[in-house]
Design a protein that fits this description.
iron-sulfur, four-stranded parallel beta sheet, alpha/beta, oxidoreductase, Rossmann fold, Nase_comp1_CS
Length: 524
């Protein structure tokens, strides 16, 4: 087993088995780090907890819901507005966060009365919102507050309200993935089948494992609608609470992020006989194959092919332009769970970059298997790295860009490596044909940014070049592009910045929406 031992982690010998360098001829039988295990004491993990996985990843994207955390106020603020889970109801779930604000006295004497009071206050403050989710935290789980009983009391006292309870305290799993499982099972146990939906098409699906990051869901549901398919519910991006109660009437579960939502798909198949079809909205080939599979299931393949042909003709030239300029660039792919393998192969094949490292904070062995299998020789695979290991990996690998979250991303910028936000995107959405080109554009802008290049100069010793467009011209020359390529029509390199016309979309105006409004927390 070609384990890689970080210098900074030699005092924790167990960490050696959580990083692997893929050598010549290596496969998954000999090149797979350990993963999805309890955090090793002393390793300073940056994982999210199970509560975070339930509320932040899956629960909060539901749009017409009051999301309230029963616990210290820090828990809800830590999981508020850190991803762009936008919605078409003016981003209600992004504008507000709610917490019972449990204090020391409540830990001693109990916090059930506080919870009930806060639930009523929240419904009174937002009378048009009659749905609520309550999330358990470590503190209130440890003192044994009966959240389910309180929810039942409130629903009896306030007719017309409906409350979902998610018992997923932070310690309920080794990482946030444990919370994914908890909320999946709780939702199907408590709410699925409690409302009959309106069926308007012969072809009906649930779109599962989609969280509408910067409009991803809008892109994909537009394709489905153009194929004549009714999206009964989206679990959970831009999803409606009541629509999700009717998931049992779909003919097919279309699953995007298997890591976070395969559990509810498997239960829907077991309990209601609804088949599961895994798809991928990232990359021209993967997306095209996904639309074909859905079309084949319903016998409407020609509709899928028409969309694929139209979109490819429109966007392939743009993607090819970026591919020429990204060829051979080195990428560290350090995202969440499923993007580890959704992106690894596609960005190499369709954008020409080379993935030199993959990692995951909370992914299971299956996620790492898929990611490692899609990487070439020399790739470094890491499970649950800490900040020091990340810095050491950057020093060793010397990537041109990394795709990761804000915390490790800002760390990378300090050592001269640009990053793209793999969790909330820089200028998304990234799904769909246009979105994939948008992703390529963001990669290009990160690598070729004149400002980034200037930031690496030491004014005490380095020569400071001047003149308009110097940085862009030099970088394109260093990339080995010909004069014809550098001066291609409709591209202007005469200024200090790349002036490619930004991609625009009249189809999805929701992309431009941003959450505004005052912070509001109930019960403080």
């Amino acid at each position: 087993m070609p384990y890689h031992e970080f210098e900074c982690s030699k005092v924790i010998p167990e960490r050696r088995e959580h990083a692997v360098l893929k050598g010549p001829g290596e496969d998954l039988t000999s090149c797979l780090p350990k993963g999805y295990l309890n955090t090793i004491p002393g390793s300073i993990s940056e994982r999210g907890c199970a509560y975070c996985g339930a509320k932040h990843v899956i629960g909060t994207p539901m749009k017409d819901v009051i999301h309230i955390s029963h616990g210290p106020v820090g828990c809800t603020y830590d999981t508020w507005q850190t991803k762009r889970y936008i919605s078409d109801n003016d981003n209600f779930q992004l504008k507000y966060t709610f917490a019972t604000d449990v204090k020391e006295k409540h830990i001693v004497f109990g916090a059930e009365k506080l919870l009930k009071q806060n639930i009523k206050e929240a419904f009174a403050a937002f009378p048009d919102t009659r749905r609520m989710t309550i999330y358990q935290t470590c503190a209130t789980a440890l003192i044994g507050d009966d959240i389910n009983a309180i929810a039942e009391e409130v629903m009896e006292e306030l007719p017309g309200t409906d409350i979902f309870v998610c018992n997923s305290p932070g310690f309920a799993g080794p990482s946030q993935s444990g919370g994914h499982h908890k909320i999946n099972i709780a939702w199907i146990n408590q709410k699925v089948g409690t409302l009959e939906p309106e069926i308007t098409s012969d072809h009906v699906i649930n779109y599962v494992g989609e969280y509408n990051i910067q409009g991803d869901q809008e892109v994909m549901t537009d394709y489905f609608k153009r194929m004549g398919i009714q999206v009964l519910s989206t679990f959970t991006g831009n999803g409606s609470y009541d629509d999700l109660r009717g998931m049992h009437r779909a003919q097919l579960n279309v699953l995007e992020c298997a890591r976070s939502a395969e559990y509810i798909c498997d239960e829907l198949r077991e309990r209601y006989g609804i088949p599961r079809l895994d798809i991928d909205g990232f990359g021209f080939k993967a997306l095209g194959d996904s639309l074909r599979k859905i079309g084949l299931f319903f016998g409407i393949e020609e509709r899928a092919e028409a969309i694929i042909a139209e979109e490819t003709a429109r966007w392939q030239p743009e993607l090819d332009w970026y591919r020429e300029r990204l060829q051979g660039k080195r990428v560290c792919l350090w995202p969440g769970g499923s993007k580890l393998w959704h992106w690894a192969h596609a960005i190499q094949e369709e954008m020409g970059v080379k993935v030199v490292s993959v990692y995951t904070k909370f992914g299971h062995q299956g996620d790492m298997e898929k990611g490692v299998s899609r990487c070439g020789e020399g790739a470094l695979a890491i499970d649950d790295p800490n900040e020091l290991e990340g810095l050491e990996a950057l020093e060793m690998l010397r990537p041109d860009v990394i795709f990761t979250g804000k915390r490790p991303g800002e760390m990378a910028k300090k050592v001269g490596v640009p990053y793209l936000n793999a969790h909330a995107y820089h200028n998304g959405p990234y799904k769909g044909f246009e979105g994939w080109v948008r992703f390529a554009r963001d990669i290009y802008n990160a690598i070729y940014s004149p400002i980034h290049q200037l930031a690496q100069l030491d004014i005490s010793r380095d020569e400071i070049p001047d003149g308009p467009g110097f940085a862009t011209r030099r970088m394109l020359s260093d990339a080995g592009l010909s004069e014809a390529q550098r001066t291609a029509p409709a591209r202007d390199y005469s200024g200090a910045y790349d002036t490619i016309t930004p991609l625009r979309s009249k189809t999805y105006p929701v992309f431009e929406r941003r959450a505004e409004g005052a912070v509001e927390a109930v019960g403080q």
